[in-house]
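Handoff note, outgoing to incoming analyst
You'll be picking up this chain. Sequence as last confirmed:
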Amino acid sequence: MPLSQSPRVALGRYDLYRRTPSVELQNGKIKFLPGQWAKEFESTDAAFPPGSRLEYRIQKGDMYFAGDHSQALGRTLWVIEPDGSRRLLASGFILYLDLTVAARNLQKLGVPFRAVTFYEGPNGEQVETELSISPSRLRIPMAFVLGSSNLWLGAVAGLFIHRVSYLIAIGMIAFLVLAIATVRSASSIRAALLKIISSLPIYGAGYAVAVVLVRFLASDLAGG
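Most recent structure output, in case you need it:
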């Protein structure tokens, strides 16, 4: 679709408070439009020559200790022209985009979209990590599957496994898989270890509650 005929496209899902941002492409320009009640932002526009792309950038900083890069400090939306020059469209800590929705809607117009996190290295350089964007909003994110594994795995184990040693072993293996995934996706080993240690009690408690609850319901139904 030619840019001169491009409609407005949303960069997020419907929001009850009308804060969903959008962009409008027309006559070789792109215009950022905040949600109707998003008073923190102003409408801005910039040139958008053929071959340009949109880039969503999340700046990270240290929260717990030096080098963990787990604190979001700011969010910006940029136009990246073919020659590499950048033009800022929007900036703000609460500039939330739904990456899947934004990528899908922009793809329909032939507009490339990229999302990255970055932090300042020891010498002032920017260290970037590109964010993976799910191709479908119906796809269940792997992080959600792993993060909730204590509940659904505890329910399945409580229903079919009766030996306590086996139940403990299954829970430990599941948490080990989650720990490995956490280490691989974390910005540093120390940040991953902190996250793993802090989530262990919650994971174990959720797993135990799921096992006990399913056992209780199964016995109650069997008795009835």
